[in-house]
Amino acid sequence: MGGVTLPEAPWRARPGLAALERALDAAGGRARYVGGAVRDTLLGLDVADIDLATPFVPEEVVRRLEGAGIRAVPTGIAHGTVTAVSQGSVVEVTTLRRDVATDGRHAVVAFADDWREDAARRDFTINALYADPVGGAIHDYFGGLDDLAARRVRFIGDPHRRIAEDHLRILRFFRFHARFGDAIDAEGLAACVARANDLMALSRERVAAELLKLLVAPGAVAVVRLMHESGIFRPVLPEIDRDGVARLAAVAERERAAGVAPDSIRRLAALLPPAAAEGVGARLKLSNADRKRLVQASAGPGDEGARALGYRVGTASALDRLLLAGADPAPLSDWMPPVLPIGGGALVARGLTRGPEVARVLRRVEDRWIAEGFPDAARAEAIADEEVAQALRATRNS
Protein backbone atom coordinates (compact mmCIF):
# COMPACT_ATOMS: atom_id res chain seq x y z
CA MET A 1 0.00 0.00 0.00
CA GLY A 2 2.89 2.36 -0.68
CA GLY A 3 2.17 5.83 -2.07
CA VAL A 4 -1.15 6.06 -0.24
CA THR A 5 -2.47 9.54 0.44
CA LEU A 6 -5.19 10.71 2.78
CA PRO A 7 -8.52 10.87 0.90
CA GLU A 8 -10.65 13.96 0.96
CA ALA A 9 -13.16 13.78 3.78
CA PRO A 10 -15.70 16.20 5.29
CA TRP A 11 -13.65 16.77 8.45
CA ARG A 12 -10.75 18.15 6.44
CA ALA A 13 -12.91 21.13 5.43
CA ARG A 14 -13.90 22.05 8.99
CA PRO A 15 -13.63 25.78 9.74
CA GLY A 16 -10.38 26.81 11.32
CA LEU A 17 -8.28 23.81 10.32
CA ALA A 18 -6.42 25.66 7.58
CA ALA A 19 -5.52 28.46 10.02
CA LEU A 20 -4.32 25.90 12.55
CA GLU A 21 -2.18 24.15 9.94
CA ARG A 22 -0.59 27.48 8.96
CA ALA A 23 0.09 28.40 12.59
CA LEU A 24 1.97 25.13 13.14
CA ASP A 25 3.83 25.29 9.81
CA ALA A 26 2.28 22.19 8.32
CA ALA A 27 3.63 23.22 4.91
CA GLY A 28 7.12 23.02 6.39
CA GLY A 29 6.50 19.52 7.69
CA ARG A 30 6.07 20.63 11.30
CA ALA A 31 2.59 19.20 11.86
CA ARG A 32 0.85 15.98 10.87
CA TYR A 33 -2.53 14.46 11.57
CA VAL A 34 -2.24 11.21 13.47
CA GLY A 35 -4.22 8.32 14.91
CA GLY A 36 -7.95 7.80 14.62
CA ALA A 37 -8.67 10.59 12.14
CA VAL A 38 -6.14 9.13 9.69
CA ARG A 39 -7.13 5.51 10.29
CA ASP A 40 -10.87 6.12 10.00
CA THR A 41 -10.52 8.33 6.91
CA LEU A 42 -8.57 5.56 5.16
CA LEU A 43 -11.38 3.16 6.07
CA GLY A 44 -14.08 5.54 4.82
CA LEU A 45 -15.53 6.04 8.30
CA ASP A 46 -16.81 9.25 9.87
CA VAL A 47 -14.25 11.11 11.97
CA ALA A 48 -15.11 12.61 15.34
CA ASP A 49 -11.86 13.56 17.10
CA ILE A 50 -8.89 15.14 15.38
CA ASP A 51 -5.31 14.85 16.65
CA LEU A 52 -2.33 16.74 15.35
CA ALA A 53 1.30 15.90 16.20
CA THR A 54 4.15 18.39 16.05
CA PRO A 55 7.82 18.62 17.10
CA PHE A 56 7.13 22.05 18.61
CA VAL A 57 7.26 21.98 22.41
CA PRO A 58 3.98 22.89 24.16
CA GLU A 59 5.05 26.46 25.01
CA GLU A 60 5.86 27.08 21.35
CA VAL A 61 2.55 25.53 20.32
CA VAL A 62 0.69 27.92 22.63
CA ARG A 63 2.72 30.91 21.38
CA ARG A 64 2.03 30.08 17.75
CA LEU A 65 -1.67 29.41 18.30
CA GLU A 66 -2.26 32.58 20.27
CA GLY A 67 -0.24 34.54 17.72
CA ALA A 68 -2.67 33.32 15.06
CA GLY A 69 -5.73 34.22 17.16
CA ILE A 70 -6.46 30.56 17.95
CA ARG A 71 -7.52 29.68 21.48
CA ALA A 72 -5.04 27.39 23.25
CA VAL A 73 -6.25 25.35 26.24
CA PRO A 74 -3.48 23.60 28.24
CA THR A 75 -5.51 20.42 28.81
CA GLY A 76 -2.54 18.08 29.25
CA ILE A 77 0.46 20.33 28.87
CA ALA A 78 2.68 18.25 31.19
CA HIS A 79 2.28 15.39 28.71
CA GLY A 80 2.58 17.71 25.74
CA THR A 81 -1.07 18.18 24.80
CA VAL A 82 -2.69 21.52 24.03
CA THR A 83 -6.30 21.76 22.87
CA ALA A 84 -6.67 24.19 19.97
CA VAL A 85 -10.06 25.77 19.35
CA SER A 86 -10.03 27.32 15.90
CA GLN A 87 -13.30 28.78 14.58
CA GLY A 88 -15.21 26.19 16.58
CA SER A 89 -13.10 23.24 15.48
CA VAL A 90 -11.43 21.42 18.38
CA VAL A 91 -8.10 19.69 17.76
CA GLU A 92 -5.75 18.00 20.23
CA VAL A 93 -2.20 19.15 19.44
CA THR A 94 0.49 16.96 21.01
CA THR A 95 4.25 17.36 20.95
CA LEU A 96 6.21 14.36 19.69
CA ARG A 97 7.17 12.20 22.68
CA ARG A 98 9.19 9.27 23.86
CA ASP A 99 8.62 7.29 27.04
CA VAL A 100 11.15 7.76 29.81
CA ALA A 101 9.47 5.51 32.39
CA THR A 102 6.23 3.53 32.60
CA ASP A 103 4.55 1.53 35.35
CA GLY A 104 1.60 0.06 33.50
CA ARG A 105 -0.72 2.88 34.52
CA HIS A 106 1.16 6.14 33.92
CA ALA A 107 4.03 7.19 31.71
CA VAL A 108 6.77 9.75 32.21
CA VAL A 109 7.51 11.24 28.81
CA ALA A 110 10.17 13.43 27.24
CA PHE A 111 9.52 15.63 24.25
CA ALA A 112 11.14 14.56 21.00
CA ASP A 113 11.58 15.71 17.44
CA ASP A 114 11.67 12.32 15.74
CA TRP A 115 8.43 11.13 14.12
CA ARG A 116 9.41 7.47 14.19
CA GLU A 117 10.27 7.69 17.89
CA ASP A 118 6.82 9.14 18.55
CA ALA A 119 5.18 6.38 16.51
CA ALA A 120 7.14 3.70 18.38
CA ARG A 121 5.48 4.58 21.71
CA ARG A 122 1.94 4.16 20.35
CA ASP A 123 -0.06 0.99 20.89
CA PHE A 124 -1.08 -0.49 17.52
CA THR A 125 0.27 -0.09 14.02
CA ILE A 126 -3.09 1.13 12.69
CA ASN A 127 -3.05 3.94 15.27
CA ALA A 128 0.45 5.10 14.33
CA LEU A 129 -0.33 6.46 10.87
CA TYR A 130 0.51 10.12 10.20
CA ALA A 131 -0.79 12.28 7.37
CA ASP A 132 0.66 15.46 5.89
CA PRO A 133 -2.12 18.10 6.05
CA VAL A 134 -1.00 19.76 2.82
CA GLY A 135 -0.26 16.95 0.38
CA GLY A 136 -1.98 14.15 2.28
CA ALA A 137 1.06 11.84 2.19
CA ILE A 138 0.78 8.99 4.68
CA HIS A 139 3.78 8.26 6.91
CA ASP A 140 3.76 4.65 8.10
CA TYR A 141 6.68 3.43 10.19
CA PHE A 142 5.47 0.01 11.35
CA GLY A 143 3.32 -1.55 8.63
CA GLY A 144 0.02 0.01 9.72
CA LEU A 145 -1.26 0.37 6.17
CA ASP A 146 -0.82 -3.33 5.47
CA ASP A 147 -2.48 -4.19 8.78
CA LEU A 148 -5.35 -1.86 7.98
CA ALA A 149 -5.83 -3.57 4.61
CA ALA A 150 -5.72 -6.99 6.29
CA ARG A 151 -8.04 -5.82 9.09
CA ARG A 152 -5.42 -6.88 11.60
CA VAL A 153 -4.86 -5.23 14.98
CA ARG A 154 -1.19 -5.64 15.83
CA PHE A 155 0.95 -4.23 18.61
CA ILE A 156 3.94 -2.12 17.64
CA GLY A 157 7.03 -4.12 18.52
CA ASP A 158 6.94 -6.60 21.40
CA PRO A 159 3.34 -7.01 22.67
CA HIS A 160 4.54 -7.91 26.18
CA ARG A 161 6.50 -4.67 26.39
CA ARG A 162 3.62 -2.60 25.04
CA ILE A 163 1.30 -4.11 27.67
CA ALA A 164 3.85 -3.59 30.45
CA GLU A 165 3.91 0.11 29.53
CA ASP A 166 0.13 0.44 29.83
CA HIS A 167 -1.98 -2.46 31.07
CA LEU A 168 -5.13 -0.96 29.54
CA ARG A 169 -3.76 -1.99 26.15
CA ILE A 170 -5.03 -5.51 26.87
CA LEU A 171 -8.62 -4.27 26.71
CA ARG A 172 -7.82 -1.87 23.88
CA PHE A 173 -6.45 -4.77 21.82
CA PHE A 174 -9.78 -6.56 22.06
CA ARG A 175 -11.84 -3.40 21.56
CA PHE A 176 -9.98 -2.44 18.41
CA HIS A 177 -10.20 -5.99 17.13
CA ALA A 178 -13.97 -5.94 17.75
CA ARG A 179 -14.19 -2.74 15.72
CA PHE A 180 -11.67 -3.27 12.96
CA GLY A 181 -10.33 -6.81 13.08
CA ASP A 182 -10.80 -9.93 11.01
CA ALA A 183 -8.55 -12.82 12.12
CA ILE A 184 -7.04 -11.98 15.50
CA ASP A 185 -3.29 -11.48 15.76
CA ALA A 186 -2.00 -14.62 17.50
CA GLU A 187 1.06 -12.98 19.05
CA GLY A 188 -1.01 -10.15 20.49
CA LEU A 189 -3.63 -12.54 21.84
CA ALA A 190 -1.00 -14.71 23.52
CA ALA A 191 0.54 -11.68 25.22
CA CYS A 192 -2.85 -10.47 26.47
CA VAL A 193 -3.64 -13.90 27.91
CA ALA A 194 -0.24 -14.13 29.58
CA ARG A 195 -0.56 -10.67 31.14
CA ALA A 196 -4.29 -10.63 31.96
CA ASN A 197 -3.58 -10.31 35.70
CA ASP A 198 -2.04 -6.90 34.97
CA LEU A 199 -5.59 -5.58 34.61
CA MET A 200 -5.95 -5.73 38.39
CA ALA A 201 -3.55 -2.79 38.68
CA LEU A 202 -5.83 -0.49 36.69
CA SER A 203 -8.45 1.84 38.13
CA ARG A 204 -11.90 0.40 37.68
CA GLU A 205 -12.98 3.60 35.91
CA ARG A 206 -10.47 2.92 33.13
CA VAL A 207 -11.59 -0.69 32.88
CA ALA A 208 -15.24 0.39 32.70
CA ALA A 209 -14.64 3.05 30.02
CA GLU A 210 -12.83 0.57 27.77
CA LEU A 211 -15.29 -2.27 28.36
CA LEU A 212 -18.35 -0.14 27.61
CA LYS A 213 -16.82 0.96 24.30
CA LEU A 214 -15.98 -2.64 23.43
CA LEU A 215 -19.51 -3.88 24.10
CA VAL A 216 -21.03 -1.78 21.30
CA ALA A 217 -18.34 -2.51 18.68
CA PRO A 218 -19.50 -4.46 15.61
CA GLY A 219 -17.68 -7.65 16.60
CA ALA A 220 -18.42 -7.40 20.31
CA VAL A 221 -20.14 -10.76 20.77
CA ALA A 222 -17.43 -12.89 19.19
CA VAL A 223 -14.67 -10.92 20.91
CA VAL A 224 -16.31 -11.10 24.35
CA ARG A 225 -16.70 -14.85 23.87
CA LEU A 226 -12.98 -15.12 23.04
CA MET A 227 -12.08 -12.97 26.05
CA HIS A 228 -14.12 -15.18 28.36
CA GLU A 229 -12.65 -18.38 26.94
CA SER A 230 -9.13 -16.92 27.25
CA GLY A 231 -9.56 -15.87 30.89
CA ILE A 232 -9.18 -12.14 30.22
CA PHE A 233 -12.12 -11.13 32.40
CA ARG A 234 -11.24 -13.34 35.35
CA PRO A 235 -8.94 -10.87 37.19
CA VAL A 236 -11.40 -7.95 37.13
CA LEU A 237 -14.86 -9.32 36.26
CA PRO A 238 -14.98 -12.95 37.38
CA GLU A 239 -18.80 -12.76 37.38
CA ILE A 240 -18.86 -13.09 33.58
CA ASP A 241 -19.57 -16.70 32.62
CA ARG A 242 -20.62 -18.75 29.61
CA ASP A 243 -24.31 -18.09 30.25
CA GLY A 244 -23.62 -14.37 30.27
CA VAL A 245 -21.91 -14.57 26.89
CA ALA A 246 -24.95 -16.45 25.54
CA ARG A 247 -27.28 -13.76 26.93
CA LEU A 248 -25.16 -11.07 25.32
CA ALA A 249 -25.40 -12.84 21.95
CA ALA A 250 -29.18 -13.12 22.30
CA VAL A 251 -29.63 -9.46 23.22
CA ALA A 252 -27.38 -8.32 20.36
CA GLU A 253 -29.48 -10.35 17.92
CA ARG A 254 -32.72 -8.94 19.34
CA GLU A 255 -31.35 -5.39 19.02
CA ARG A 256 -30.47 -6.08 15.39
CA ALA A 257 -33.84 -7.63 14.58
CA ALA A 258 -35.74 -4.77 16.21
CA GLY A 259 -33.60 -2.03 14.68
CA VAL A 260 -32.57 -0.86 18.14
CA ALA A 261 -29.11 0.71 18.50
CA PRO A 262 -26.61 -1.30 20.57
CA ASP A 263 -26.34 0.00 24.11
CA SER A 264 -23.37 -0.63 26.39
CA ILE A 265 -25.25 -0.67 29.71
CA ARG A 266 -27.92 -3.02 28.34
CA ARG A 267 -25.24 -5.34 26.96
CA LEU A 268 -23.31 -5.28 30.22
CA ALA A 269 -26.53 -6.19 32.04
CA ALA A 270 -26.97 -9.15 29.69
CA LEU A 271 -23.40 -10.25 30.31
CA LEU A 272 -23.75 -10.29 34.11
CA PRO A 273 -25.78 -12.58 36.35
CA PRO A 274 -28.66 -10.42 37.68
CA ALA A 275 -27.50 -10.85 41.27
CA ALA A 276 -24.10 -9.38 40.38
CA ALA A 277 -25.36 -6.20 38.69
CA GLU A 278 -25.40 -3.96 41.74
CA GLY A 279 -21.97 -5.00 42.96
CA VAL A 280 -20.34 -4.72 39.54
CA GLY A 281 -21.93 -1.33 38.90
CA ALA A 282 -20.48 -0.06 42.15
CA ARG A 283 -17.07 -1.65 41.51
CA LEU A 284 -16.84 -0.08 38.06
CA LYS A 285 -17.96 3.25 39.54
CA LEU A 286 -20.71 3.73 36.97
CA SER A 287 -22.94 6.76 37.29
CA ASN A 288 -25.98 6.43 39.54
CA ALA A 289 -28.26 6.44 36.50
CA ASP A 290 -26.30 3.66 34.77
CA ARG A 291 -26.13 1.59 37.95
CA LYS A 292 -29.90 1.88 38.32
CA ARG A 293 -30.41 0.74 34.72
CA LEU A 294 -27.98 -2.13 35.21
CA VAL A 295 -29.89 -3.40 38.23
CA GLN A 296 -33.35 -2.91 36.68
CA ALA A 297 -32.52 -4.51 33.34
CA SER A 298 -33.30 -8.05 34.45
CA ALA A 299 -36.56 -7.15 36.24
CA GLY A 300 -38.69 -8.52 33.40
CA PRO A 301 -41.20 -6.90 31.03
CA GLY A 302 -44.00 -6.47 33.57
CA ASP A 303 -47.62 -7.28 32.82
CA GLU A 304 -48.99 -3.89 31.74
CA GLY A 305 -47.51 -3.78 28.24
CA ALA A 306 -44.45 -2.18 26.69
CA ARG A 307 -45.70 1.41 26.66
CA ALA A 308 -46.94 1.28 30.25
CA LEU A 309 -43.49 0.03 31.22
CA GLY A 310 -41.85 2.77 29.17
CA TYR A 311 -43.96 5.38 30.92
CA ARG A 312 -43.21 4.08 34.39
CA VAL A 313 -39.45 3.45 34.12
CA GLY A 314 -38.41 5.45 31.04
CA THR A 315 -37.92 4.15 27.52
CA ALA A 316 -34.22 3.29 27.96
CA SER A 317 -34.84 1.07 30.97
CA ALA A 318 -37.98 -0.37 29.38
CA LEU A 319 -36.02 -1.35 26.27
CA ASP A 320 -33.42 -3.02 28.48
CA ARG A 321 -36.05 -5.08 30.27
CA LEU A 322 -37.96 -6.03 27.13
CA LEU A 323 -34.89 -7.04 25.15
CA LEU A 324 -33.31 -9.01 27.99
CA ALA A 325 -36.61 -10.83 28.51
CA GLY A 326 -37.11 -11.54 24.80
CA ALA A 327 -40.30 -9.43 24.68
CA ASP A 328 -41.31 -7.30 21.69
CA PRO A 329 -39.93 -3.72 21.92
CA ALA A 330 -41.75 -2.54 18.76
CA PRO A 331 -44.42 -0.51 20.65
CA LEU A 332 -41.64 1.78 21.92
CA SER A 333 -40.29 2.55 18.45
CA ASP A 334 -40.51 6.33 17.84
CA TRP A 335 -42.74 6.63 20.91
CA MET A 336 -42.36 9.36 23.50
CA PRO A 337 -43.98 8.86 26.91
CA PRO A 338 -46.87 11.33 27.22
CA VAL A 339 -47.48 13.58 30.22
CA LEU A 340 -50.49 12.96 32.44
CA PRO A 341 -52.80 15.82 31.40
CA ILE A 342 -54.10 16.46 34.91
CA GLY A 343 -52.44 17.29 38.22
CA GLY A 344 -53.14 17.50 41.91
CA GLY A 345 -54.48 21.03 41.66
CA ALA A 346 -57.30 19.86 39.45
CA LEU A 347 -58.28 17.30 42.10
CA VAL A 348 -58.31 19.95 44.82
CA ALA A 349 -60.49 22.11 42.59
CA ARG A 350 -62.93 19.19 42.45
CA GLY A 351 -63.27 19.16 46.23
CA LEU A 352 -60.43 17.08 47.67
CA THR A 353 -58.56 18.46 50.67
CA ARG A 354 -54.84 19.05 50.07
CA GLY A 355 -52.67 16.30 51.52
CA PRO A 356 -51.99 12.58 51.17
CA GLU A 357 -55.46 11.88 49.77
CA VAL A 358 -54.71 13.99 46.68
CA ALA A 359 -51.59 11.92 45.95
CA ARG A 360 -53.49 8.63 46.41
CA VAL A 361 -56.34 9.67 44.11
CA LEU A 362 -53.92 11.04 41.51
CA ARG A 363 -52.14 7.67 41.46
CA ARG A 364 -55.47 5.91 40.80
CA VAL A 365 -56.25 8.38 38.02
CA GLU A 366 -52.82 7.78 36.50
CA ASP A 367 -53.13 3.99 36.77
CA ARG A 368 -56.47 4.03 34.91
CA TRP A 369 -55.13 6.47 32.31
CA ILE A 370 -52.16 4.15 31.66
CA ALA A 371 -54.38 1.06 31.53
CA GLU A 372 -56.60 2.75 28.92
CA GLY A 373 -53.59 3.48 26.70
CA PHE A 374 -52.97 7.15 27.57
CA PRO A 375 -56.26 8.70 26.32
CA ASP A 376 -56.66 12.42 25.65
CA ALA A 377 -57.21 15.19 28.20
CA ALA A 378 -61.01 14.95 28.02
CA ARG A 379 -60.92 11.29 29.03
CA ALA A 380 -58.36 12.04 31.77
CA GLU A 381 -60.74 14.68 33.12
CA ALA A 382 -63.58 12.17 33.15
CA ILE A 383 -61.45 9.62 35.00
CA ALA A 384 -60.55 12.31 37.53
CA ASP A 385 -64.25 13.17 38.02
CA GLU A 386 -65.03 9.53 38.76
CA GLU A 387 -62.14 8.99 41.15
CA VAL A 388 -62.73 12.22 43.08
CA ALA A 389 -66.44 11.45 43.40
CA GLN A 390 -65.59 8.01 44.76
CA ALA A 391 -63.10 9.47 47.23
CA LEU A 392 -65.58 12.05 48.46
CA ARG A 393 -68.26 9.41 48.96
CA ALA A 394 -65.85 7.31 50.95
CA THR A 395 -65.00 10.30 53.13
CA ARG A 396 -68.68 11.07 53.84
CA ASN A 397 -69.41 7.43 54.67
CA SER A 398 -66.46 7.02 57.05
Helicity, as a percent range: 40-55%
Enumerate how many helices there are, as a single number. Answer: 19
| Shape summary | elongated
The helix-strand sequence is: HEHEHEEEEEHEEHHHHHHHHHHHHHHH
Rg estimate, integer Å: 28 Å
Q: Write out the strand line-up for the largest beta sheet, numbering strands in chain order.
A: 3-4-5-2-1-8-9
End-to-end C-alpha gap: 88 Å
The count of DSSP E runs of length 2 or more, i.e. the number of strands, is 9
Largest sheet: 7 strands, mixed
Give the percentage of residues in beta strands: 5-15%
Name the poorly predicted regions: none
Q: What number is the mean pLDDT?
A: 94
- Structural class label: alpha+beta
Give keywords.
about 400 residues, two-stranded antiparallel sheet, about 10% strand, alpha+beta, elongated, 19 helices, 7-stranded mixed sheet, about 50% helix
Describe what is shown at a glance:
The chain is α+β, with helices and mostly antiparallel strands. It contains 19 helices and nine strands. The chain has helices at 17-23, 36-42, 58-67, 115-120, 144-150, 159-165, 169-180, 186-194, 204-215, 220-229, 242-258, 264-271, 277-283, 288-296, 306-313, 315-325, 344-349, 356-371, 377-397; strands at residues 32-34, 51-54, 71-76, 81-86, 89-95, 97-102, 107-111, 129-131, 138-140.
Task: Outline the secondary-structure elements.
Elements: H1 17-23, E1 32-34, H2 36-42, E2 51-54, H3 58-67, E3 71-76, E4 81-86, E5 89-95, E6 97-102, E7 107-111, H4 115-120, E8 129-131, E9 138-140, H5 144-150, H6 159-165, H7 169-180, H8 186-194, H9 204-215, H10 220-229, H11 242-258, H12 264-271, H13 277-283, H14 288-296, H15 306-313, H16 315-325, H17 344-349, H18 356-371, H19 377-397
Parallel strand pairs: 2-5
Antiparallel strand pairs: 1-2, 1-8, 3-4, 4-5, 6-7, 8-9
Helix pairs in contact: 7-9, 7-10, 9-12, 10-11, 11-12, 12-14, 13-14, 15-16, 18-19
